[in-house]
Amino acid sequence: MTNKLDPRLEKIKSELASLKKEDKDKTDKQTIKDNDQESMSVGLRAGAELITSIAAGGLIGYGLDQWLDTKPIFLIIMLLLGIATGFVNVWRTTQNMGYQVGYKDIQKSNKNIKKDID
Hints:
88% helix; 118 residues; 0% strand; mainly alpha
């Protein structure tokens, strides 16, 4: 009687193995898709941070020049500050720092991330 069950058991095992393989493939594809979407999100955020800080610096500098009747000085200064701020924001975004302030906070969060991974 066990001889009759063996072919059926083998068939069930092979079907189960193929279903597990299909599920693993779907999960791997979804993980890759999620990673791509996250990367695109970070890239778009970094670009928006850079453009808005440069534009804000330029507009504030232009407004100050118009108000104080000093033609290019505040525009140049605020534009340079906007560029610097934009690059700092892009760096912070790509390093997953968020809006943390200070070196110790960054060290603490890096240690917590390493603990979570282990």
